[in-house]
Amino acid sequence: MRVDQAQFMEQGYLILRNVIPAEQLDAIRQSYEVLVERQKAVWARERQPDDPPGGVWETHQQPRLSHVEELVDRSTANAVELWLHENTLGVAQQLIRAPELAVTEMMLMCNPVHDHPGGTGWHRDFQPATQAPVVGLTEDLRANGPGYVQWNIPLYDDNVLWVVPGSHLRVNTEAEERQMAEDPQAPLPGGIPVPLNAGDGVVYTNLIWHWGSNYSTRLRRTIHGGHASIAPPLYAHIFSPVWDQQLRFVECLPAATRQTLERMAQLLSDQRDLLESLFRAMLDKDGDRFLRELAALRPGEEGRMVCLVMLSKVVKRMRLVSQPEVRRLPRAERAKIVVHRDMLDFDENLAGRFSHEEVERIWQRFAVLDAKLQADSEQHVSWSRSGKPSRYIVNEMPANFGVAEFVASWNDRQGAS
User: Yes or no: is domain 5-260 CATH 2.60.120.620?
Assistant: First the structure.
C-alpha cells in the first residue's frame, strides 16, 4: 500500500481503505474477541469491592485492552502480526523517514456497557509536563517529519473519531481555546468526522486535535496503537515500545514475527545503551563526548533542542523510579505512582544502570533547562488528557538557549557537582 507523505504532513492524518484485507477480517475479529474475553476475566478478578462483577468492563467509558501482547497465544498470533503487515508497518515506514521502526502499544478500544455521550472531549495526545512545548514539537515535525504515528483500525464500522486537519503544525487558535473553555465536547471550528468502514484505518500524528466523540453501546472493536522511530536520525517524542522488556509472549508467535519483534527489542536496548553513554558524559561534565553522543542520537541540527527537552523528561522519570523507597515497593505499587505506568520497565532498566545519587547529579545538569521550561505559576490546560495543572509552558521553547548554552549551564549553575 502506497501513501502520500506530503498529504500526511499537510493534513496530519490519512484515511486508508482495507488496511485489513477483506479475506483476513473475520479471522482477526475472532482472535480479538478471544482476547476481549480473556481481558474481561482479568478485570473481573481485579475489580474493586464497590465495583460491579465485571469491574472495568462495566464501569469504564471506553474499556480498552492496553496490552494485547499479554493476552495472545499461538491461536491469536494474527492480532500481533497485524502490526507488522505491509499495510501498517509498511505505511509507517513511508511516513517516518527513519531506518528502523518499532511497534509501540498494541491495544483494542471497545464499546462501554452504558452510553457515554461526548466521549473523551477534544485533546491532543500531548502533555506539557511530559513532552516539549508545542512550538518545538511542531517545528521538529516540519523539519524532520514524524517520529511516531498512531492508528485506529476498526473491526466494525466506526464513526467515533473526529479531527481538525492541519492543527498538528500550529498552536491553538483563540477560537479553539474559547470553545474548549465553553464546552470541550462540542465540535471545534474546522473539526470533521473520520468515518471508517470495517477493516479501514486512519493513521495520524498525536499532535493533531482529535476527539472520541461518542462512546455508545454500539458494538465497537477498534484496534489502536502506533509505530515509532527507534534509531537515528529521529528520536521519537512519544513513548518507546512498552513490551520490549516482557518478551515472553513472542515464544508463541511464528518464527518470522518473533524475529522481527526480537530485533525491535534489541534496537531499543541499543538505544538505552546510547542514552546511558550520553548521561555518563553528562556526569563527567565531558561536553565534547556529550555532543558526540547527542549527534549520534539526533544527527540533524534541527530538533536537537526538542531532543534535549525529551531527554530531560526521561531523567525526570528515572529520578522517580530510582528513589530507594520506590524501588522497595512491589511492582504493582510502583506502577501506580510513576508518570507513565506503561514505561515502568523502560525507565527502571535505564535508571538501574546508575545509583540514585548519580541520577540526581544527571538531573542537576538539566536543572537550568527545566527551569526555563516552566512558568512562574501553574497553568490549567483544558485540552490536556491529565487534567492536572502544570507550571510547564505549553507553547514556546526557551528563548536564546540552545545546545551550547545547555552544556555551559552545567558549570554556570552554582553548586552543581
Answer: yes
Specify the residue for cell string 455521550: 117
Structural domain spans, the chain: 5-260, 267-412
Q: Could you please report the per-residue DSSP string of 297-351?
A: H--SSTTHHHHHHHHHHHHHHHHHHTSHHHHTS-HHHHHHHSS-GGGHHHHHHHH
Q: Spell out the SS3 assignment of 242-311.
A: CCCCCHHHHHHCCHHHHHHHHHHHHHHHHHHHHHHHHHHHHHCCCHHHHHHHHHHHCCCCCCHHHHHHHH
| Gap between the Cα atoms of 103 and 226, Å rounded | 6
Angle at 184 between CA 199 and CA 173, to 5 degrees: 95
Q: What is the pLDDT of residues 318-337, one digit of tens each?
A: 999 999 999 999 988 898 88
pTM of model > 0.85? yes
Residues 187-206: b if buried by 16+ CB within 10 A, e if exposed: ebeebeebebebbbbbbbbb
What is the rounded average pLDDT of the residues 1-8? 96
| One CATH from 2.30.30, 1.20.272, 1.20.120, 1.10.760 for 267-412 | 1.20.272
Kindly list the distances between the CA atom of residue 375 and the CA atoms of 159, 170, 176, 378, in Å, as whole numbers in the listed order: 39, 20, 22, 7
CA distances from 129 to 144, 184, 186, 253 (A): 23, 21, 26, 37
Distance CA 34, CA 74 (A): 12
The grid coordinates listed for 290 are 556529550
Q: Is the pLDDT of residue 23 over 90?
A: yes
Whether residue 208 contacts residue 163, with contact meaning beta carbons closer than 8 Å, is answered with yes
